[in-house]
Amino acid sequence: MLEAATASQNGYTKHPPVSAQPQGEAVAALPEAPASANVHVTLAGRKVQVTLRDSDEQRLLARLEALLKRFPAEDEAEGEGSPPKGWCSKHGVQMKLRNGEHGA
């Protein structure tokens, strides 16, 4: 009741449910692709998985190479190597130097 009263105010319009399969039409199953590849890329600031499928492996690899050129790898060197001196790996913060009763 409230939805109908405020629909014009909030821009919400109730639509009938949409079926993924057209009514009365049979949908043929797609054959399994002989070649496929999955890759995670960052698109518009979001990490997404892209799946490529093809009937020819060489063509698939060419498409994959083109895709990877469009979305270069992020700099992973930041997370590699040993943490800086005094870094707490458990809490992910820089530890404070303490002397006396609580320090070494």
In words, what does this structure look like?
- By secondary structure, the chain is of the alpha+beta class.
- It has a domain at 33-72.
- 22% of the residues lie in helices and 21% in strands.
- The protein contains two helices and four strands; from the N terminus they run αββαββ.
- The protein has helices spanning 2-10, 57-70, and strands spanning 35-43, 46-54, 87-88, 93-94.
- The chain has a two-stranded antiparallel sheet with strand order 1-2.
- A hairpin with a 4-residue loop joins β3 and β4.
- The chain is elongated, with a radius of gyration of 27 Å.
Topology of this protein?
Elements: H1 2-10, E1 35-43, E2 46-54, H2 57-70, E3 87-88, E4 93-94
Antiparallel strand pairs: 1-2, 3-4
At a glance:
By secondary structure, the chain is an alpha+beta fold.
What order do the strands of the largest sheet run in, or round the barrel if closed? 1-2
Sequence of secondary-structure elements: HEEHEE
Q: How many helices?
A: 2
Structural class: alpha+beta
Distance separating the two termini: 69 Å
Q: What spatial form do the alpha-carbon principal axes imply? A: elongated
Radius of gyration over C-alpha positions, nearest whole angstrom = 27 Å
> What can be said about the biggest beta sheet?
2 strands, antiparallel
**Beta-strand residue percentage:** 15-25%
Helix proportion range: 10-25%
Low-pLDDT ranges: none
Number of strands: 4
Average pLDDT taken over every residue: 77
